Amino acid sequence: MFKPLRGYFFICLVLVTIALFSSCGNGGNTGIVPSTDNNTSGIVNPTQTPVILVNKPVSGYIYVSNSTNLNILDLTADEFITQTGEYLQKEYPQDYSTSDIQELYNQLKTDLSQSKPLPLYDANARLFSVRQDSDSSEPIPVDSDGHFNGEALTTADEDGVNLEVSLNDETYIGIETVSLSDTINSSSVNIELKSCPGSILAEPGDLVIFEVYSEPSVNLRELGLSFKLTDNSAGCVTQPVYLCIGGKNKYTKAFGIFYASKKITNTPLSSLIIAKTRNDLTLNIPLEIVKNTASISGRVITGGKPLIKGFVRSIGPSAFCKLNSSGEYTLPRIFRSHNVKVVATWWVEENGKKVRYRQERVIEFFNTDVTDFNFGEEITPTPIPTVTPTPNLTPRPFDDIFYDARVSDVIRQKHQWIDTYGREQAIQMTLDWLNNALPSAPSIPEEIIGAERDVYDNSIIKIHFSGGHRVNLLDKFSLVLSQNSISSKNINNLLEKHIRNIKDNENLSLIASSVKTVRSNKILILAPFAFQFSGGNYTNNKVYGQFADDLNNLKDPNTGTPLYKIHCVVTKHTDVEQLHPEYEIREGNREQTLVIPYREKPSTDPNSIWNPDIVRPEDFIVNNSDKNYGVIYIMTHGVSICGMAYKEDPDNPSPTYKWLTAHKDWWEYGYQIAARYTPPSDCDPNQPYYEKMIILTESFFQQQDYTNAIVFMGGCSGFDRVELFKGRHASIYIGTDRTAMSWWTELTAYKFFWYMYNGLSANEAYNKLGEIGVNPDPTGYDPNACADPNIFADPNSSPVGCTYKIYRENTSTEIYLPAPAEIVIQKSKSF
Predict the structure, then answer these.
(1) Which residues of 275-284 are buried (b: 16+ CB within 10 A; e: fewer)?
(2) Which residues contact 88 (CB under 8 A, 6 or more apart)?
(3) What gap in Å lies between CA 480 and CA 264, rounded to an integer?
(4) Nearby residues of 58 by Cβ (< 8 Å), 6 or more positions away
């Protein structure tokens, strides 16, 4: 196993320059949960509730590079280099031959060849568990070749073992390893993938080794473990490598190597490394590439006890400091990132004895220098009662206009920079500004504590507010084109040529068949933005219109009951009302927001208090019981935008508001620029105006069950999120590969389901779209007719040539429309 670490880091660092990680092991890795409490801490204190500690075996080879990087390997450096190269070349020859992997492997050889065994680097170096007192405990013995084999003190429930190296008592470096059994569990039930490190923080050009294992231990090679980077611009990653140790192949733990691209200039850049097995065990390893730093300072408070010595360390290029005689410290250069851990260790005199304390604190470190970041306990005098009222600490409601106003402040500044520097530079300047890395910029809007790029779309800025509120500032328009935007083939005529009227099929007969259908005859159809996409046509050539009506009218010939149970919700222009942008009034000042509010119109159904045609977040729930839909079609922006954030009546909250309140981890707000919006006369016509939407988070989708279902996503770049649905066992998933025009996606989806309705399988219907020339999108577009001509500049995002792509869970199985009995519709020869 290989775990490098720089001398000034306390957690698992890897190769080259500065690669950083959060802790591994305990509790598994399912991603970083940002801390909303910047005072999170834990102190090893003899007077506190005892923690049950055990000794666990640890072994390996520990190396130090000239830049004080620590590396722990399962083999000697030479053996590690040789086995890695041979395994990659043998098992993944196509990947190994690429220039990216060759550069990665050459860097690995260079770094390890320049490292020295720990005792040769520093004869006085000592290795401990962080649970040990390095002043009074026996260190773990390390041989002259760097090999160590001993026991480390840790808690019983931790897989990861945190170690600490003392270099001549002048510098303390943290590093971690994993203590695992070689016993392989033959069962594949209740297996959980874990990683060490649990997340990766790196600078451009860093090489990072990570390890994936399972609890309980299983043969990961047999399960077909693979690694995938969600954003290839972040760099490259190898596929899993398994080492041979002592003549035995070790398949219970796999390691990969991530190489951060040297070309990255816009940071922070967030991505994921997805570890996945053939039986859909999945682990997301968060990855963040950073460069910006700031300082943290404070002091250790001993409660009046004499301080003997101590030190503080964290993550960054200059992140180690000894305490002065007053207990003060300054860490000059700490990486600004999520969940930055700062560790203080100090010794005091108690009753004539030397007693060691250790405390960890975690901070969301996005802003500028932090002061008064203190450790220890103050001796608090008995308080004197006063008549000062207790302050109201109630957090802001999530729909408070305060958030719209602060986002509007960001929008104004971002668009000033767009006008001056262009879109790409403006996005980066906005990120730097909100992370307090742009000295000449105006003050950061109140309560904003940082920002980052979205993992899946790096044009989206995720803004963090104090108190945990997060929003997404989208960069692209809602695509709207005028009719003269079609400058070549008319796809509408092309489709109409192949679409037959339903009356031509009245004589189709239903016959018994053994063909495979999806899990139920329930069909979910959602169109939360039909009022934007449809052009006023909610019926012809629409899945949520004509096709849904046809299915509702299809009856069993023997019983007369409907063959399908359709849950179709379509939000039309008659269901919503666009309001004027609102004003925020604070301390007598009145300033207009740049957010266009919408309100849902009252229900026209006498049996419903709330408008049944408003698509709500709970409509997106799919399970294996009451909402076990066999076919799911969703026409929205992207994949996860589930509707507008409608203005609420505080005295009569809607079902949407109640759901959002009860499921705060399942959604975030998103702000998207409105296309072709004409502001009212009291608004500034030179400002951009945005619409506020509800975005379902990855946590929401991880709770859904798409087993044996067809999922068709009609929005932009739907196929980018295919992993969400593969991991939840969808039989078929179809989505676009880039920005898409809504009228093309709707017409093509309609044709796809029309073919399935007439007896083709999902795969046959998909292939038919290519045969008739409608997939990819054959349309030529006039950029000048588009609300956002910039989308045509990048061929990777331009709608020209947009293609629906398909994922099939089982390529040997043909999936047909569901029915309450096994049936097939006889196919017309005209196909």
Answers:
(1) bbbeeebbbb
(2) 95, 96, 101, 105, 238, 239, 241
(3) 33
(4) 140, 148, 149, 150, 151, 152, 161, 163, 177, 179
Tokens of residue 515, six digits: 């063909």
Which tens digit of pLDDT belongs to each residue from 166-192? 887 777 888 878 776 655 655 556 788
Token pair, residue 758, equals: 């007439």
CA–CA dist 615, 617 (Å, integer): 7
Instruction: Give residue 632's identity as a one-letter amino acid code.
Output: I
CA 275 from chain centre, in angstroms, equals 14
DSSP 380: P
Q: Mean per-residue pLDDT for 47-52?
A: 51
Residue type (1 letter), 478: S
pLDDT digits (tens, 9 = 90+) for 789-815: 666 766 666 888 899 999 999 988 899
Q: At which residue do the structure tokens 């957690």 appear?
A: 11
| Assessment of whether the complete model's pTM goes beyond 0.85 | no
Q: Which two tokens stand for residue 321?
A: 């400091």
* Radius of gyration (C-alpha) of the chain in whole angstroms: 30
Instruction: Give the integer Cα–Cα distance in Å for 426 and 422.
Output: 6
Q: What gap in Å lies between CA 138 and CA 341, rounded to an integer?
A: 27
**Cα separation of 13 and 163, whole Å?**
12
Q: 3-state class of 23 per DSSP?
A: coil
Nearest to 19 by CA among 203, 288, 168: 203
| Best CA proximity match to 258, nearest among 319, 195, 214, 337 | 195
Please give, one letter per residue, the 3-state secondary structure of 728-739.
Answer: CCECEEEEECCC
Torsion angle of C-alpha atoms 419, 401, 659, 645, degrees rounded to 10: -40
Alpha-carbon span 57 to 776, nearest angstrom: 57
Buried/exposed code over 604-615 (b: 16+ C-beta within 10 A; e: otherwise)? eeeeeeebebbb
Three-state SS sequence of 113-143 = HCCEEHHHHCCCCEEEECCCCCCCCCCECEC
How many C-beta neighbours within 10 Å does residue 497 have?
A: 9
Taken as a whole, the chain contains a residue count of 831
* DSSP state string for 613-643: TS--GGGG---SSTT--SEEEE-SSTTTEEE
| CA–CA gap between residue 734 and residue 723 (Å, rounded) | 12
Helix (H, G, I), strand (E, B) or coil at 523: strand
Helix, strand, or coil (residue 681): coil
pLDDT band at 781 (very low <50, low <70, confident <90, very high): confident
Name the band, by pLDDT with cuts 50, 70 and 90, for residue 606.
Answer: confident
* pLDDT (tens digit per residue) in 118-152: 999 989 899 988 888 777 678 999 999 999 998 88
